[in-house]
Amino acid sequence: MVVQSSITGKLMEARERGVQYLLGQQRADGAIGNPEKDGLGPYYKALWALAAAGRSDEGNRLATWVAHNVLTEEGDFAGELRGKLFDYSYAYPNAWMIVGAHKLGRFDISRRGIEFLLGLQHESGGFRIQRDNTDAPQDVLNSSQAGNACLFTGHLAEAKTVGRFLRTVWDAQPHPDKELFFVYKAGTGLRTEFAEDRQRLHSIRIDTPRQMYFNMGIAAAFLTRLAMATGDGSWVGLGRNYLQIGLNVLDEMYETAQVGKVGWGAALVYGATGDEKMLHLAERVGDALVAQQTDTGGWDNTGGYVNDAIRIEVTCEFIVLLDEMIAGIGARA
Fold first, then answer.
1. β-strand 138-139 against 183-185: which pairing, if any?
2. 13 occurs within a structural domain
3. 195 pLDDT above the threshold of 60
4. Has residue 184 been placed in a domain?
5. How confident is the model over 267-290, as a mean pLDDT?
6. How many other C-beta atoms are found inside a 10 Å radius of the C-beta of residue 195?
């Protein structure tokens, strides 16, 4: 039985308000925000956001700025306009820009970008968190978004190895109903021991606030897309496994910006399977995102630390996530 959802209209309206805020942040040269001051934070999600919004003119102006000012010969997005913020999550912003450029038809950027990004893939299938440290661990966030970049650019074999990495990470979980660990190092295994003050950098606990909930959501989103690309439904089943802990965490999750990707994953899993629990999870996240939207039309991060760069980054992400959620929920209509 298909379950109709009444939330998509609200999500569309919130998405459009976010788009209007974002358009107001674009400079005459195509850049978004102030990358000379803030690095890639304001713009690395904006290519995908503008593609999702159907703003090809603005998206291509930003893409041209990226190609001239940030894209290197080897296909990295580097230099002073990148900054150091993502030195320990290196693959993640690159993957965002590759998908965004590809969706805009800027294959000149996505082709070179994916060639470099694949150099960060470990033989385990995961993507390491640092550019130049080949001994660095792999994690769920970098691997899942890099996996999305592989899917969108047609690198299905590499995307499958990301799927196998995520299965390895899942199979190693000691008690996934209570805690989801998301950092892995080949040869060592899942990182389950760490200083308590670094807990949120390694796991999601059901009884602890301010967790990095997005890890479960992005894994589910990628794995569902992998299932679509391969026709292998076991991948979406694995994605649903990653999301199960989201049904047990503290309700404060819905007061955080980190809940966004949970809705992304839940909506895609629902679209692929019709699982009503996933629909209800996606709807609750959607209501949370609408409630968190500010009077500017943009969104702020959690915790009270807000500046223009952060607001632009979070807004770009939520434009994309809302678009993906609308598509996922709509797939069952």
1. antiparallel
2. no
3. yes
4. yes
5. 98
6. 8
Task: Please name the residue that has the structure tokens 């770009």.
Answer: 316
Coil, strand or helix at 333 = coil
| pLDDT tens for each residue of 111-128 | 999 999 999 999 999 999
Tell me the backbone φ, ψ of residue 181, rounded to 5 degrees. Answer: -90, 140
Pair type for strands 183-185 and 189-190: antiparallel
- Dihedrals φ, ψ of 305, to 5°? -90, 110
What phi, psi does 20 have (nearest 5°)? -60, -40
Q: 54's torsion region: left (phi>0), alpha (psi -120 to 50) or beta?
A: left
Supply angle C-alpha 100, 134, 198, rounded to 5: 80
Average pLDDT of the chain to the nearest whole number:
96
13: helix, coil or strand? helix
Q: Which single residue is written with the structure tokens 């358009």?
A: 23
| CA gap 60, 50 in Å, rounded | 9
The helix (H) or strand (E) run that includes residue 138 is: strand 138-139
CATH code assigned at 132: 1.50.10.20
The C-alpha R_g of the chain, in whole angstroms, comes to 18
- Give how many domains the chain has, as a whole number: 1
DSSP calls for 173-205: -S-TTTEEE-EEETTTEE-----GGGGGGTEEE
Split at pLDDT 50, 70, 90, the class of 306 is confident
Whether 6 is covered by a domain: the verdict is no
Distance CA 82, CA 88 (A): 13
CA 248, CA 265: separation in Å to the nearest integer? 16
pTM: 0.97
Q: Does residue 125 sit within a domain?
A: yes
**Starting at the edge strand that comes first in sequence, how are the strands of the sheet with 138-139 ordered?**
138-139, 183-185, 189-190
- Helices and strands per DSSP (H, E), number in the chain: 13, 5
For residue 133, how many C-alpha atoms fall within 13 Å in the half-sphere facing its CB?
A: 12
Domain containing 239 equals 20-330
At 8, list the tokens: 């998509």
